[in-house]
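ok here's the first one, seq then struct tokens
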Amino acid sequence: MFKEFVKNNRENIINTVSDLVEFKSVSNETGDENMPFGEECKKALEYTLNLGEKLGFRTKNIDGYCGYIEFGEGDELVGIIGHLDVVPADINDGWISDPFKTEIRNNKLYGRGTIDDKGPVVASLYAMKAVAGNCKINKRVRLILGLNEEKAWKCMKRYKETEEFPTIGFSPDANFPAIYAEKGILSIGITNEFHLDNFEIVEINCNENALNVVPKYVSITLKYTGTNSMPIFEESEDIKIETTSDNIVKIISTGVASHAAHPELGKNAITNLVKYLLKYFKNEYLQTLINLGIFEIESPEFLSRQDIAYATEFNDVSIIQDESGILTSNVARLEFEDNKLSIKINLRVPVKTKLDDIILQYKRLSNIFENIKVEVLSKQDPLFVDKESFLVSKLIDIYNKATATKKEAIAIGGGTYARAFDNCIAYGPTMPNEEDMCHQVDEYIDIDTLMLATEIYCEAIFELAK
């Protein structure tokens, strides 16, 4: 039944995803009550809500912050929580084609948002149509559409202030077979006085890199103030040098972007720049941060150092690793103002580790640096749903039946809207062993995966709502 529906709507699904990708819906707060996250986010939401109405569903636009599409009757509400905002993309970043125009190559649908999260949202919407037209259910089903997921979740905050909470549900914004645990997410800012001998720091530019993205670009512009000839900075594979006649030098470091939940998939341009600078400058502050492991992608070494640790429990490896994986770190931004350097870091913390313990340990950096300032930029508690729960076991069964496999639920470092509500987990669309294209250049979703995910979502909606 569902397989036939998806087959008949294959082109509709592809075309709808393509239409949505054309909205450059990077979430930016505007202060405009009519479009709080920008015109493109507003257009993407209106397009999707209008499509929901055309498919016969009830819809609501919640003050431009978010919206929902709903069908069914009953006291209980099944939630499907997705988002229409995307991370920035530019063809000059190395995309083969325009990131906001979908293109099909080798049965893959390319474009920003195809996998995160516009493609899965469309799959969920058409799955709702399949269930609504072919099945009897006893609950309401609501597709909740956020517009600020990649930034501060203010869309979800507004929803929770005024709207009904789902009693059970999933977020189509991660991996199959099902996600029973998501690490805690912690963003830390470290600020300290900073200078480089014989040079004035004119500017540091990270192109406003998002905290949840491994930075692919950073540059530092310096003006030589020494009395001798300006040193010669050598280029390398990842470092480019631009100089002018007035003793200005711009050092450009390039890397490879990836999601901060998987920093090992990227190459951090900031880390590359810091290590390059230390070849030319004796800077005790940067060198100490390197020695402490602040720029490492896994478990900064200072977390277990007893000279700054506040408790012996930091000797226990469980503080940095458990069944959900190891603590990871992404140095996402550098900012320079008033002779102070701010380093902004995004951490993915194992589910059994208290975020406050990690925060306190970072604050212990003041034991080493007298004037350092450490602040919490944001934090999200981890998600954990028992593997034996009805929700996890049911969704796993649906996936295994659809794929003829015997997979088990997994834990991830990413953070999805599933953690916005109780009794909700992330579910697809990336298949096991598929390349994770979330936040990456040339983002794509395999079309067969998109169709299979739609079929799986049909079954999931039916089973949760019947």
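and now the second one, same deal
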Amino acid sequence: MDEKVALAPCNGMSANGLVSRVAVGDCRKQNGNVISICMGSTSADFEGKNNGMLKKYPIVAVNGCPNGCVNKILKNKGIDVADTVAVNEVLEDYEVSAKDPFRLDSEAEECVKIITEKLNKLIGDLI
């Protein structure tokens, strides 16, 4: 059992990337045992200065689109993920979708709630 879980959200410019980032932020607010990872910093860290932190806690990759960039970036750094949430796949089971990569409307907020619930269940399983 680990004391914290790290969430690694999509930093892409898609509507589901925004959903990913907001859901991770909401999970951090709701769970004192959650940290988030900046994928921009992780991707740009050619010296490996962040590798110790990245290996300290189990990581949940939260991808916005089918490209799975979060997993690819972490894999390129030699970092294994404990689990992956594909926002686009999760939302296929619902009749809501995010449409704007820069703003959340009421439908996108529903998407955030769905992804936040999914993440909270995973966090509970990992801690």
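notes on #2: Helices lie at 15-30, 39-44, 51-54, 69-76, 87-91, 106-126. The CA atoms of residues 13 and 101 lie 6 Å apart.
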